[in-house]
Each structure stands twice: as structure tokens, then as C-alpha cells.
Specification:
The chain is α/β, with parallel strands linked by helices. The protein folds into 2 domains: 2-72 and 245-412, Alkaline Phosphatase, subunit A; 92-238, no CATH class. Helix content is 35%, strand content 18%. The chain contains 15 helices and 12 strands. Strands 2-12-11-1-10-8-9 form a 7-stranded mixed sheet, with helices on both faces. Strands 3, 4, 5, 6 and 7 form a 5-stranded antiparallel sheet that branches. Helix 5 crosses helix 11 (261-270). The protein starts with a strand and ends with a helix. 53% of the residues are buried. Bound molecules: zinc ion. The site of zinc ion has 7 residues, from helix 3.
Length: 413
């Protein structure tokens, strides 16, 4: 038996007036996903437990079969796994966004989608400033660290605007920080009352502006009418997670295709193979065809293939309904379509399609609605659901309130 799980990040949405009361999933032309729903089974899956925030980290951990209430320790360390950073047990990893600040407000949580190349220069610049005794940036922090003979804190460059900050201070894992995409347009000071323990983080965030604002890259970006990456935002921190291996739990091997470090990291900690696909990005320009092709080819070697696509989520955060519909249609055509065209080489197989969470266009951030799930199995009889969207799957036979049971359900029935 072969298994494919296609995750359209943030694909779920609410009815929109501009779509005459329909959702992007209901408007998108997606014959392949609808067909596998018609011939398969469907339902709603709760990927986010009530006690946790509806982040991609928590939701995808559920989809990979891990109960987030038991195993989730923060987004930062998962992403660190995705870029092969080795962590000691007392190192805390923060997600470090490059953001745009203007007049004390957070105007872009991704510095106008700054690319990896420019971002890398700025991240190196932050590290150099951190080490420079004549620079005020992070001096307070280094004095502390040196006196205790601990590892020097460091920024690690990831993809686009998504970077990491690692510091050896267990107490910082408890500071209450807000995801920057949840406070667009708001005054940042309102989100930096972090108490005594959080003082170092607050100072780092605020002082980063002095280091970044006048960097030639930012001057150039402003001239070009782009958002400058003139501040960092630290959040999503945690200690290294301890996950039992996917193979030890389920007795099968598997792999992950994604353009996102977070998903790679979950795969790494779960002991899954990470398949790097040329042209796979975390944005609208990802190479859907290549992802589908690698997914097909890789099935020869693996039992379970996760294929994750970030673009619908980015469209949700951008409030861009057209791009969201386009992303869904491309996932249908190039990924689900290619899998369906090739998977009947195998005698028995199952294909699951779902988002990790909703990213409603209306709010431009994640919600905790249960997500629509469809599973086609070459061995099961179908249920009554005929098309795939947020409301039509409700009458299906796959409703589950614990998202982390999906993998077990997929493999056992
Ligand atoms: Zn997500």
C-alpha cells in the first residue's frame, strides 16, 4: 500500500462577500480533488487542540501523527531541525522575522517578502554587530553570556524573511511573544511588555532597528519603493522537541516534500526523509509541477509521502483572494493530478487532501476551524460527500476531533 498526504497550507477559508458568499475552495476549479472526494470519503479534522494557537507548527504536527499537547515545544526548534542546526538541551530557538516598522507600528511581518539573498546579508550584519564590542546592539546580552561561559547567541539565516535566533538561556523559553502576522498595523510597544525575564528580548528587538535601518540594502529597498527590513521580531521560541520516530510508531517509512523549513524540521525530528525539490519555494512561485513529479518518483522508495504547499497560506496572509484560488487550482492540477495519473501503477493506494488550518482572507491570519479532509482509497467504498470544500464534507464519514489520529486512521483502515 502507498500513501500520499497533500497539505495545502491555510487552504480553508470562510464565505466571502466578494465571492458571493462562497469560499476560495468552492470557487476554485479543482476536478481532481473533487473526483477523489466523490470516489472516497470526507469529513472535518480538528488539527489544533483548544489549548494551543492555530499555528502551522501545531497543526502540521497533528497531521504527521504527533499529539501537539504531548510533543509541541515551540516553532523555533522545529525550524532549526529543518536547517540542520544541532541544538543542546538548554538552547532556546526563537523564530526571527525580518519586519518593517514605521512610526512605532508593525507594517509588514515579512519586510515586503524580502528574498533570501538580501536577507542573508542583513542576518550576517546582525551577527557581526552582536560580536562587535563597540556596537550597542546586544551588548547587555553578551556581557551576561560571557560571564557564564555559555555559547554565544547567534542568528541563523533561513529562507526569505524567516530566520532563527539561538541563545543558551532556558528561562527565555517561557516569555510570551506574539506572532508578527497577528499584529499588522498595530503599535509594537503594546506587545513588548515581557516582564523581567523578557527584558533582553525586548531590547534586542528594539535595538535591531539601529543596526538595520541604514544598511545599504534597506536604503536601496526604500528607493525601489519596497518595504525595508528595518527591525527583527522574535517569537515562537522553544527547546528541542523529543519525538518518537514515525517508523517506530507506524512500522512504515516516509518522506516530506516542502518549501518550508518548519515542515522539514517536523520531518527531521520524526525521522522522515526530506526530499529537496529544485524550484520548491514557500511562495506563489513554487514549482508545483516539480513537486508533483518528485512526489510520484519518490513513491517507489517510500510508503508514505507528505507533500506540503505553502502558497494558499501566503495568499491568505496577503488577503489576496485571486492568488488563493490560483494556488488551489495549481495544487489540484499539478500535484493531485500528477499523483492520480501515476499512482495506479501500484496495486493499492490512498490519497489524503487537507489544509493544516484555515487562513481566512477576511482576517489574514490563522483560525482554529476544523479542516476539510478527503481520503481516496483504492480499497474502500465511498461515502455520500460529492465535492471537496469546508461545508460539504460535514456529512462525511471521516469526522475526527483529534487530528493526530489521521495517520493511524490512514494506515489502519
Ligand atoms: Zn499553515
Amino acid at each position: 500500500m502507498k500513501y500520499v498526504v497533500v497539505i495545502g497550507d491555510g487552504m480553508g477559508d470562510w464565505p466571502l462577500a466578494e465571492l458571493n458568499g462562497k469560499t476560495p475552495l468552492q470557487i476554485a476549479d479543482k476536478p481532481n480533488i473533487d473526483n477523489l472526494t466523490l470516489k472516497g470519503r470526507a469529513g472535518l479534522l480538528q488539527t489544533v487542540p483548544e489549548a494551543l494557537n492555530p499555528g502551522s507548527d501545531v497543526a502540521n504536527m497533528s497531521i504527521f501523527g504527533y499529539n501537539p499537547l504531548e510533543y509541541y515545544s515551540g516553532r523555533g526548534p522545529l525550524e532549526a531541525g529543518g536547517i540542520n542546526i544541532k541544538l543542546s538541551k538548554d538552547e532556546v530557538v526563537f523564530r526571527c522575522n525580518l519586519i518593517t516598522e514605521e512610526d512605532g507600528r508593525l507594517m509588514s511581518s515579512n519586510a515586503g517578502h524580502i528574498g533570501s539573498q538580501e536577507a542573508k546579508v542583513l542576518i550576517n550584519h546582525l551577527n557581526r554587530s552582536l560580536m562587535d564590542e563597540n556596537n550597542e546592539f546586544g551588548k547587555f546580552l553578551l556581557d551576561d553570556m560571557n560571564s557564564d561561559n555559555l555559547n554565544t547567541p547567534i542568528f541563523h539565516g533561513g529562507m526569505d524573511y524567516k530566520h532563527l535566533f539561538v541563545i543558551q538561556d532556558v528561562l527565555l523559553s517561557k516569555v510570551d511573544l506574539t506572532p508578527p502576522h497577528d499584529i499588522l498595523g498595530e503599535e509594537i510597544n503594546g506587545y513588548l511588555s515581557l516582564g523581567v525575564e523578557g527584558e533582553t528580548i525586548k531590547n534586542l528587538i528594539l535595538q535591531s532597528k539601529d543596526v538595520l535601518e541604514n544598511h545599504p540594502i534597506n536604503k536601496k529597498r526604500v528607493k525601489q519603493g519596497k518595504n525595508p527590513a528595518n527591525m527583527i521580531w522574535l517569537w515562537g521560541q522553544g527547546l528541542k522537541p523529543k519525538l518518537p520516530l514515525f517508523k517506530d510508531i507506524h512500522g512504515v517509512n516516509g518522506s516530506v516534500i516542502t518549501g518550508v523549513d518548519l515542515l522539514k524540521g517536523i520531518g527531521v525530528f520524526a525521522g522522515l526523509d526530506i526530499i529537496n525539490v529544485p524550484g520548491a519555494t514557500a511562495f506563489y512561485d513554487t514549482d508545483y509541477k516539480a513537486k508533483g513529479r518528485y512526489g510520484v518518483d519518490n513513491l517507489e522508495k517510500q510508503d508514505v509521502q507528505f507533500i506540503h504547499i505553502e502558497s494558499p497560506d501566503e495568499a491568505g496572509h496577503d488577503g489576496n483572494v485571486e492568488e488563493k484560488i490560483k494556488a488551489i487550482e495549481r495544487i489540484d492540477k499539478h500535484i493531485v493530478g500528477q499523483i492520480l495519473d501515476n499512482i495506479n501503477n501500484y496495486e493499492d493506494y490512498k490519497i489524503a487532501v487537507l489544509p493544516d488550518h484555515f487562513t481566512p482572507i477576511a482576517t489574514r491570519t490563522h483560525s482554529r476551524d476544523p479542516v476539510p479532509l478527503a481520503i481516496y482509497s483504492s480499497t474502500n467504498v465511498p461515502d455520500e460527500v460529492k465535492v471537496y470544500d469546508e461545508s460539504s464534507v460535514v456529512d462525511g464519514s471521516l469526522n475526527m476531533d483529534k487530528g493526530y489520529n489521521l495517520v493511524k486512521r490512514l494506515l489502519d483502515h
